[in-house]
Structure formats: structure tokens, C-alpha cells
Design brief:
Length: 94
């Protein structure tokens, strides 16, 4: 992956939170275990609208993860806001 893919994913999630979510708070978590690198970005914004197609940014996040053998999920949080979970194998980071 090289670290720049992780940074690009983080930049995209933060851009989405700033432009679309109207969030007041964004929490960022990066974890690494024996197999994966996981980026989680949670905001307290308006969440995803039902029936709204994903924009280019969310599509790019998913595509970038898939190309690297990972996945990206975007969900509404029960307490409000959105969570993006972007996971790729650790082997592509090294």
C-alpha cells in the first residue's frame, strides 16, 4: 500500500466530514494487528441519507481498498453521524 494510500483514505474521509456531514467532532483511529491495517473515522454529523447514491469520494475509498485486497464500509452510527471503516492487509503496507 505504502503509507500514502492510508493518508489518501484519511484525507477523503475528513473531506467528506467537513463538506457533507456538518460534523462538529471527528474521531480517527488507526489499528494494526498481525494481518490488517484498519482506519476508522467516526463523525457526529447528519449521517448518510437513505436512498442517496454514494458520491465519488466514497466510491474512491471503496475502490482503493479493493485494489489493495481490502474493504471499505460506510455506515450510519446509532447515536448519529457516520462511521467509515477502511481495512487493507498489512502485507501491502510494508
Amino acid at each position: 500500500m505504502r503509507p500514502r494510500s492510508l493518508l489518501a483514505a484519511l484525507r477523503e474521509t475528513l473531506t467528506n466530514a467537513a463538506k457533507h456531514a456538518r460534523a462538529h467532532r471527528v474521531d480517527i483511529e488507526v489499528t494494526v494487528d498481525d494481518t490488517d491495517v484498519v482506519l476508522r473515522v467516526r463523525d457526529d454529523g447528519v449521517g448518510l441519507s437513505a436512498g442517496r447514491p454514494d458520491g465519488l469520494g466514497l466510491g474512491n475509498l471503496a475502490e482503493r481498498a479493493a485494489v489493495l485486497g481490502g474493504e471499505c464500509t460506510v455506515t450510519n452510527r446509532p447515536e448519529g453521524g457516520t462511521e467509515v471503516r477502511w481495512r487493507v492487509p498489512l502485507s501491502v503496507v510494508r
